[in-house]
Amino acid sequence: MQTIDVKRLAEEQRRFHVDVIDVRMPTEFREIHAQFARNVPLDSLDPHEVLASRNGAADQPLFVICRSGNRSAQACKKFIDAGFENIVNVEGGTTAWDKAGLPVVRGKKAFPLTQQVQLTAGFLVLLGVVLAYFVHPYFAGLSAFVGAGLMFAGATGACPMASGIARMPWNQCGGGGSCLA
């Protein structure tokens, strides 16, 4: 997989038009993003659709960015698996972009998805314990189910709870499920 650091990408952007997609959730994108990036969330990413929308620029590199580099690496893999090769992962993501003092668009603050997952998982575990103690021991299964889900997420990098929470109305920007600059 090809990679590029944020300073080099900024130099490329000053010299040429570059196509950068940000694969974070719409609310994360709305909070802060590189000035010229467009939002295509990872969970709805269709590599063929994205490359078809590039108006004949399919041979030009497509730069993929996220918060720190993990989700963009997953997106790059999706493109590569779909048969596309000129895909470049932006090292360090939007965090590195902002720390380097490069131009960003700042918008409405969002409650981070990771914290939403932590609160939900913690609530469900606590609820399972309380119900198991006061109502019926079988409610301990709720806590076990959440624990198993967290282990699955840690082992695979895929979190069904996060995907579900990300689709909640408060985590959307409006029509179409993406936020544009």
UniProtKB/TrEMBL annotation:
CDD domains, per the entry: RHOD
Highest rank taxon of the organism: Bacteria
Q: Which InterPro entries does the entry mention?
A: Rhodanese-like_dom, Rhodanese-like_dom_sf, Thiosulfate_ST/Rhodanese-like, YgaP-like_TM
Q: What is this protein called?
A: Rhodanese-related sulfurtransferase
Which stretches are transmembrane?
Answer: 117-136, 142-162
Question: Which keywords has UniProt assigned to this entry?
Answer: Membrane, Transmembrane, Transmembrane helix
What is the organism of origin for this protein? Neorhodopirellula lusitana
Q: Which residue positions does the secretion signal occupy?
A: none
Domain (Rhodanese): give its ranges: 20-106
